[in-house]
Amino acid sequence: MFIYFSRLFERHRKEHKLIIPIAIFTSDQIRDEPDTLLMAIPEHDILRFQFLKVELKKQDWRRFIESDNPVAAALLAKMGYTKKEARDVRAAYLRMILRIKKKLDDARLAVIMSVADIYFQPDREQDEAILLELSELYPEEGEAIMELMPAWKRWGYEEGIERGIEQGIEKGIEQGIEKGIVKGIEQGIEKGKEEIIRKFLNKGFSPAEIADTLELPKGEVLKLIKQ
Q1: Minimal CA–CA distance to 75: which of 127, 111, 37?
Q2: Distance between CA atoms of residues 141 and 147, nearest Å
Q3: Shared domain check, 135 and 68
Q4: Cα–Cα distance between 19 and 69 in angstroms, integer?
Q5: In whole numbers, what is the pLDDT of the chain averaged over residues?
Q6: Higher local confidence (pLDDT), 58 or 188
Q7: What is the pLDDT of residue 218?
Q8: Does 69 share its domain with 137?
Q9: For residue 80, what are the β-bridge partners?
Q10: pLDDT in tens, 108-166
Q11: Number of folded domains in the chain?
């Protein structure tokens, strides 16, 4: 933390007189994390550096559910709650995403949801049930709710599969339904990948960042970019 702080201070000290270092701890256990670096010799302190810390497991998740802060939504699953509250936390997160969805573009929303899904390990059936409940509670947002999928990675893939099936059926009428559907699905999946990658590129993401976020080999991403 001290090294990061020093680099930021060196780079931005002319325009920013104050830099506040904050560490966010995501451990699953409650701990008392250290927040101070001391350097001293007998009878003389050389350095005392103390950063702010946020230990998520010590935070009450209810304090954040009315927030529109994307980071709070992404990290809600790492906050303090019981097993009985797990479903309520997931529902609160999806509700937060619905609000945030209006303020973020698709690429940034995808990053937030991908981080959250690492911690939540979403259950698709549970998410669909929660989204159905939310659509009944907030009918004015019904369309947005039904568009929201449990995991953002499915957006492009499942759209691609659906398009592929449709294309495959049409082609199958002429060349054999079974063969057409298989080929159509393959084309649809590839087209879905291409669409997601195009959106990420438009938002300034590098091929390496896209590969890491989508969990794809970098070579495959570069190939799709060329196509």
Answers
A1: 111
A2: 10
A3: yes
A4: 21
A5: 78
A6: 58
A7: 81
A8: yes
A9: 60
A10: 888 888 888 788 876 778 877 887 887 777 777 666 666 665 444 444 444 544 555 45
A11: 3
